[in-house]
Structures are given as structure tokens and as C-alpha cells.
Request: fold
Amino acid sequence: MSALTWTGGTVIREKRHRLAAVTYRGIKVVSFTANVKCRTHFFTTVDRFKAFEEMLLRSLKRFECGSDVYLFMPDHAHLMLRGVTESSDVLRAMKLFKQLSGFWLSQNHPTVRWQKDFYDHIVRDEDETGRHIRYILNNPVKQGLVRHWKDYPFMGSTLLDLGALLRS
Reply:
């Protein structure tokens, strides 16, 4: 654990990432969740989504990754990233995305910040991949934002044809 931080009289114990960086390299699938600090509702407009989508796509390209699905809820983001070559690095892609988008926030919305770090889960097989994709796509439905995941506007994929899923 890292040093203690005082916030409003509360002690927060920040944990270091639990897995070695090498674990995220190569042909891997990792599901990440990043929260907006204080659960502030930020991802509520198309222009904000598009700005963050562009930063995500730049980060994926830089580290030879793709995304099965990415979805921005009002106060957090779900990103299922996939290394597509032996030299891919999904952890570095995620960190670059948070760095780029954090800087963008500081320049454009200085009162909004990402929560430190993120949650991740290494996906072990394609059945688990399908379960995670369904969970992510149904998140806006569970939150009462839309009646069907197909109606949610703040999502995309670089690897799957969501349009085909939308037509099915």
C-alpha cells in the first residue's frame, strides 16, 4: 500500500496495481472500469463522448490494442481492451488514455477529474468475454438510462460490429 492520504478527515489507503505489468502484454483481454472522481456526472453529451473516444482510439493504436466494447456511463467508463499482437500492452494503453483524458479535463473542465487508478479484470476465455460484453452493454439499462442497450449513444467498438448486434 502507498502512503495514507487525508481527504475531508477520512483516511484513504491507496493500493498499487495488484498484477505485474508483464501480465498485460501480448494477446490479452482486460476489462477496465474508470470512475470520475466523486462520481460526478460528466459523460452526458455527444461532444464529451467523442472527445474521450478519440483519446481512447489514439491510445489503443499507440499500443497495438483494440476494444471489444467501450461504454461511457455518466460517472464512469467501461473499457474492454484486447491486445492484438505479441507486442500489445493493454495496461499502457489504459494508462495513456487516462493521462490524455486527464490533461484534457484539466484544460477544459478543471473541476472534473478521474478517480485515481482503475479497476481491472483479466478475461480468461471467450465465454467470459461474452459475459463481460453483455454486462457492459446492459449497464445503462440497469441504471434506468435506456430501455435497451441498443438505444445508448455513448458506446463503441474497434473490433466488433455493434451495428450487426444492433440489427439482431
Observations:
- Residues 25-157 form a domain with the Alpha-Beta Plaits fold (CATH 3.30.70.1290).
- Strands lie at 4-7, 10-13, 29-35, 65-72, 76-83, 119-123, 155-156.
- The two ends are 47 Å apart (CA to CA).
